[in-house]
Sequence to fold (335 residues):
Amino acid sequence: MNSASQTVLSGLRPTGRIHLGNYFGAVRNWVRLQDLYDCYYFIADWHALTSDYADTSRITNATFEATADLLAAGLDPAKSTIFVQSEVKEHAELHLILSMVTPLPWLERVPTFKDQQAQLEDKDLNTYGFLGYPLLQTADIIIYRANFVPVGEDQESHLELSREIVRRFNRFYGDVFPEPLPLATTTPKVPGLDGRKMSKSYGNTIPLTASADDIRALVMTMFTDPERIRRKDPGRPDVCNLFQFHKLFSNDETIARVDRECRAAEIGCVDDKKLLAEIMIESLRPVREKREQIDRDPSIVWDVLRDGNRKARERAQETMQLVRDAVKINYSGLQ
Ligand code: TRP
Fold:
């Protein structure tokens, strides 16, 4: 089959600015897929409600920030449909219908349910909506009859559930949905400033569109080889965070040189930080400039979303007609 006739869908919860972990882990890949598939990318603002229902004040602004950064990173509204979940109400209708056929234990056994409840213990996540998180995610995917979902490892159990639900729905009501497959891509390791996985919840991120001065300041706080205490101690690039970043940003020649000079203690951690910061600043320049352009005219973001919402709605409405017919609850003839 021609790949352009196949649909890819992925989404991101609005947590604000995109960081380098999001970029190398997902967004860079979304940008590439635009030329290969019919792509739908969206901001999952209803999903933000599942954990942030008590304070919703940041969600709309985070949706703006995430969309602006996605555009700066290279998502192109001429190639992909870029939209906001809550503006396509059909996701909610499909979620409701799916909830009727989903056995509770299927949701209760999804590992992220208990894991997240334990991790975010300051929030009461013993709610109907939170249990239904992967079911809403299923609706997000199948309402576009998506074939592929580029997701990280942490989301694989959700996608597994989506396929089980599709099989159950199709068995009851006929073949409406394709089973969505994960689109596995090798993603590089992106450590945070402190060496743990880069994540908003650890406060160790570097924003994709950080200013040059912010990049310099953040790189200065990076953890390096803990055993390299003095300048003349030889370093171990394989356990050093900085070196991971060189692998993401530097050319082969620089990587080889830093590797050699660090091991021989010819270059110190501070020298290396200065070098790395300038390389990152240069490499991220086009993204940062695009973001600055958007900030001078924020209506770019709202225009992209308005247009994307409309396109997404068309496809979702088409699917919902199929669903209502399949379930035999369709009164559209009355109108
Ligand atoms: N759960 C995803 C995340 O936390 C966001 C998401 C919501 C999503 N719906 C989706 C991802 C559908 C892929 C497909 O990152």
Summary: The longest strand covers residues 7-12. The chain has two domains: 3-189+298-327, 211-283. Residues 3-189+298-327 form a domain with the Rossmann fold fold (CATH 3.40.50.620). The CA atoms of residues 73 and 142 lie 26 Å apart.
